[in-house]
Amino acid sequence: MTATAISQGSPAPPIDHVFRALSDPTRRHVLERLSQSPASVSELAGAFKMALPSFVQHLKILEGCGLVHSAKSGRVRTYRLAPQQLRLAEDWLSQQRALWERRFDQFDAYVMSLKETDT
Q1: Fewer CB within 10 Å: C terminus or N terminus of the chain?
Q2: Cα–Cα distance, 83 to 78 (Å, whole number)
Q3: How far is the C-alpha of 92 from the C-alpha of 98, rounded, in Å?
Q4: What is the chain's mean pLDDT, rounded?
Q5: 81 near 67, Cβ under 8 Å?
Q6: How do residues 13-49 score in pLDDT, each as one tens digit?
Q7: What is the mean pLDDT of residues 75-97?
Q8: Total-model pTM
Q9: Are 105 and 28 in contact (CB under 8 A)?
């Protein structure tokens, strides 16, 4: 998405939602917990000192961007991690790392060529 498209109010791409979800420590802790095993809302909420409706909002954000999935059985809603959406963030970060490593390598080569020219 270009800067022009962003300024014109285009909907945010899925990766923006993933990074927004990951920006909150509560949501990151929920993802860490779910990486161990699926858990019910009450199991997840027990680790946090906040009102249940506030906690459920965090779960809705995580589910809205596809980082978790839920299923309801009777009165119990169980959440599980959906790691494929994390790959969006992982792939983007890997691309950025490769880009900057390439740029630093080019800068190092340039500085070395300047040193060799001076001597």
Answers
A1: C
A2: 16
A3: 10
A4: 91
A5: yes
A6: 789 999 999 999 999 999 999 999 999 999 999 999 9
A7: 94
A8: 0.76
A9: no
